[in-house]
Amino acid sequence: MAGSTRPRRPRRPRSQLQSPLLRLPPEIRTKIYRYALVRDEPIDLWPHKWTKPDESAKPAVTLLKVRHQESLEYVRKEMATGLLGTCRQVYNEAAMFFWADNHFRFTGRSGWQGLLRFFLTIGPEARSRIHRVDVHAPIYMRWPVKDSDNKDLNGRSKNFPKMHMMKIPEEGHLDRQAIQRLCVVLAQDRTLKEINFIVPEGFRNGDEDDFGGYQEDHDMELDSGIRLQRLQSLDWIKMTVVVERGGYLAVNEGPSQIMAEGWDLKCLPGSSIWEKGAEDKGGNVDYEKHEVNETRIWRSPSRGLDYLVGVKELLQEVGEDSQHANGGKHKGASKTKLERTLKGFNGCRFIGCDGVLLHLPAELH
């Protein structure tokens, strides 16, 4: 009959063994996965160089800017991430290399929000394979040295792409809340091994009362109690402050002030360190600038006590119930008893010395 169509035969599912890729030896597939899914350079998902001029724009709209997403464009066009969606076997074999061997960065302002969204979106299985990340430094960061307003507004417009990602409520002090929430996630997973706190080009940290036209309440203070306490509680993670080219560090005590927090410090060529200088007769203090011409690294002495990871949790005391002034009961804050002998703990003794837990070998008792 005219216009009749032949019935289609139902498609039979193809066996994975029919795939030329899956018929290759495992070691060959591993090389293919690495070549297709691993980038030699870091993948900055939240870069601080937010925008660039739109070269295709007409003269009438030259003020418009487009998002600067070189890393994201590379992931979409150069990396064969579609390989992960072909079948379950390929995903199970290849996903490990994508998450474990790529270096993810979130170095722009509000980078902690980006890192939190990223971790919540990819889920615990993928997070467990990521052992190192870079994120914008949470240490009393100042606003950009130049064009502060424009860079901050451009940054916020850059980092809200139309992607299917978990939403974070827009509340005040988003970075502070993101740091606290991310610390909770990291404490639950306990799989991340290293965090680099990035001070990018055009940014600085410091403790001066006023800089660049902004007062202290616009900054992220290092001594914000809850945030700093949360970061320090992640004592199994190696933390390093990295001052990149064009960024600079300004602290009263110099590098020792960073190391006192248990963090390492790495200054790259082209960065600067400002230290508090001598006080003149009028009580004024100038900062002395030291330019870094070659990579310099300062390591925190406390990193030599890595075998004490988790000791604070062992010594955590449960707070006792007490009577609240307005009636009812509440639990007192947990306190860490710094001077205590742990019997049956392989003969070890942990004592408090200026707030640092020390380990004494059994033969010294």
Descriptive report:
Residues 15-157 form the DUF7730 domain. Pfam families: DUF7730. InterPro entries: AN11006-like, DUF7730. This is DUF7730 domain-containing protein. By secondary structure, the protein is an alpha/beta fold. Among the domains are: 103-278 and 285-306, no CATH class; 310-318 and 337-365. 26% of the residues lie in helices and 21% in strands. The protein has helices spanning 26-37, 70-77, 88-101, 111-127, 148-158, 174-189, 225-233, 255-259, 311-314, and strands at 43-44, 51-53, 65-67, 104-106, 132-136, 194-199, 204-205, 238-243, 248-251, 264-267, 272-279, 285-291, 296-298, 316-317, 321-323, 329-331, 335-336, 340-341, 349-353, 356-360. The protein has a 7-stranded mixed sheet with strand order 1-4-5-6-8-10-13. It has a 4-stranded mixed sheet with strand order 7-9-11-12. A 3-stranded antiparallel sheet has the order 18-19-20, with no helix packed on it. Helix 6 (174-189) runs parallel beside helix 7 (225-233). The longest helix has 17 residues, at 111-127.
Instruction: Find the count of extended strands (DSSP E, 2+ residues).
Output: 20
Find the structural class using helix and strand composition.
alpha/beta
Radius of gyration: 26 Å
Uncertain ranges = 61-67, 141-151, 162-172, 206-223, 317-326, 333-365
Give the proportion of residues in helices.
25-40%
Instruction: Kindly report the spatial arrangement of strands forming the biggest sheet.
Output: 1-4-5-6-8-10-13
